[in-house]
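Researcher: Good morning. I'm working through a list of sequences from a screen, and I'd like to move beyond sequence-only analysis. For each chain I'm collecting a predicted structure so we can compare shapes side by side. This is the next one on the list. No need for commentary yet; just the structure.
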Amino acid sequence: MQPKVHFLKAQEGTPTEITREYTRLIKQSGGIQISCIGIGENGHIAFCEPGSDLHDPRMIRIVRIDDRSARQQYQDYKDHPNPAARYASLNAVPRKAFTMTIPAILSAREIYAIVPGPQKAAAIRRMWEGPISSACPSSALRTHSRVKIYLDEDSAQKLS
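Model: Good morning. C-alpha cells for this chain:
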C-alpha cells in the first residue's frame, strides 16, 4: 500500500461539496490509518467542542468555533514562524471550521495526540479521570485500543 496523506485544506468547492468529497476520499482510501490530533483547553479534539455528538454519523462537518477555542487558536498561532499563518487579531480567527467528527477520529487504526502546556492540565485531568461524555470530547479517546497521548510535565500536573 502506498502511503497517502490527505489534507482537508487542499479540497476545493462549496463547504457541502468539500465535506462530501473528503468523506468519499477517506472511504475510497480504506479509512483512516493514523489520526494525529491535539486536545484543547476545554477538552475538545479537532474542532469537536464540548457538547459534540459522540455518535455523529458524519465523518466531516462544519462547526462553529467557540470563544475559548478561538482564543486558543490566536495564542497558538500568534508567534508562528510563518507570518502568513498568524492571525492579526482575535477577531481575525475564523469562527467556523471543518472538522473530523469524534467517530471519524475514533475510526482510525491508531491515534496520536501531543498535548503540551499548563493550560491543558485541567482538560487532561477531565479526559483521564472524568466520565466519558460529550462534556469532554477527548474523554472518548479512552474507548480506543490504540491511542498514544504525549504529555509534558505541565499538562500532566493535575493527574492523580
